[in-house]
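Protein entry
_____________
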Amino acid sequence: MQQDNSRWLAIRTLAGLVALGGLLAAPVAAVAGPAAAIYSPIVDYREWELELKGGSFDWGQGDNGELATKLAAGYGLAPRWWAEFEAEYSKTPGNVAHVEEYELENIFQLTEHGEHWLDAGLFLEFEHNRLGHENTLVFGPMLQKEIYRSQFNLNLYLEHRLDALSGDEDGSRNEFKYQGQWKYNLRSSFQPGIQVFGSLGDPAHLRSERLSVGPALFGRVRLGDAKSLRYDFAILGGLTHDSPDTTVRFQLEYEFY
């Protein structure tokens, strides 16, 4: 009976998140790239991680498509501090692939895993776009909740462009972004779920600029000797006028100590 109640609570919570996304959906400037990922606030101390992330926006549907790939290496520097360095390659129709951006990401775990109603962390990232000669700071809270076999994640980020000439046409240098996901643990190697990527634009004038939602698959395969391979894959549909019609994304992580 307790498991049934927990399952229905998870379903109602998921329905609420989807409904909230629908309320936010109204026309609009930038969104997470096709190789973006959703992170957990839980840090694995002294663990190494090699990552391959990639994806596409509307590829093959005209001149607005984009392919992107990220290569990353991360390490648990302290019991509550994770750091990762990434290089992003991107390609647009008619152009060759090139290194577009370098990123230094940090995750600071704020609560002990499972000790409180909600697990929480802080995300801090410095981005350098070598093509646009722009620097950006991204930071915000990371939240995680586990209910029976379900896991919910919500990342809320403020993106601040540091360069004086950066910003949108209206002069804004700030953008509020959000990412969310739900996954159901059928077994460790196969977990179906949903992912959400969106933007609410300038924090001073919040409105739903872009929103993409779709089904996702997650899993972890243990390789022995404290090694494992994680994956997730998603196909997302745009729910606003300025969102990509179709986003395909994947993430592969090789973890070891």
